[in-house]
């Protein structure tokens, strides 16, 4: 059974729909390897996702998204850069300095306990191009960089 099939069968969430965000020519680069096509990318992302979950609740790695940048890419595309920190625990936080959407925490408002659990940092770049349906985009290129603290 492929990871994607097992994922869709066993997980109650919508993770298996991530595969539809990629095209057959999409690329995903991580740890010196490049994966091509929606199935290969989805399988790789599923393995990374499983690794971040850990074997127990105290081993789980959460993400704190600290910065998100968006800009035009070529004529009709867009690029998005997301960066932040990994923490030990099960939190997924979106926070920022400066202008914040309602309900977002600032970096100053984070609990000192959360900041003491920092286990590394990440930067992820997405390059999106128009898909086949109007107003829909596919990820044509994705790069993930992970550093350990």
UniProtKB/TrEMBL annotation:
The record's listing under InterPro entries reads: NTF2-like_dom_sf, Nuclear_transport_factor_2_euk
Boundaries of each NTF2 domain copy? 1-146
Which residues are listed as membrane-spanning?
A: none
Name the record gives this protein: NTF2 domain-containing protein
Q: Which organism is it from?
A: Triticum aestivum
């Amino acid at each position: 059974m492929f990871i994607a099939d097992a994922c869709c069968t066993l997980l109650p969430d919508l993770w298996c729909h991530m595969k539809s965000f990629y095209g057959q020519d999409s690329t995903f680069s991580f740890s010196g390897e490049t994966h091509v096509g929606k199935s290969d990318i989805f399988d790789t992302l599923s393995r990374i996702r499983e690794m971040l979950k850990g074997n127990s609740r105290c081993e789980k790695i959460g993400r704190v998204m600290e910065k998100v940048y968006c800009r035009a890419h070529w004529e009709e595309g867009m690029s998005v850069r997301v960066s932040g920190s990994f923490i030990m625990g099960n939190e997924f936080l979106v926070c920022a300095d400066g202008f914040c959407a309602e309900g977002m925490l600032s970096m100053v408002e984070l609990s000192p306990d959360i900041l003491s659990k920092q286990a590394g940092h990440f930067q992820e770049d997405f390059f999106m191009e128009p898909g086949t349906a109007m107003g829909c985009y596919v990820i044509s290129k994705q790069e993930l960089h992970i550093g350990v603290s």
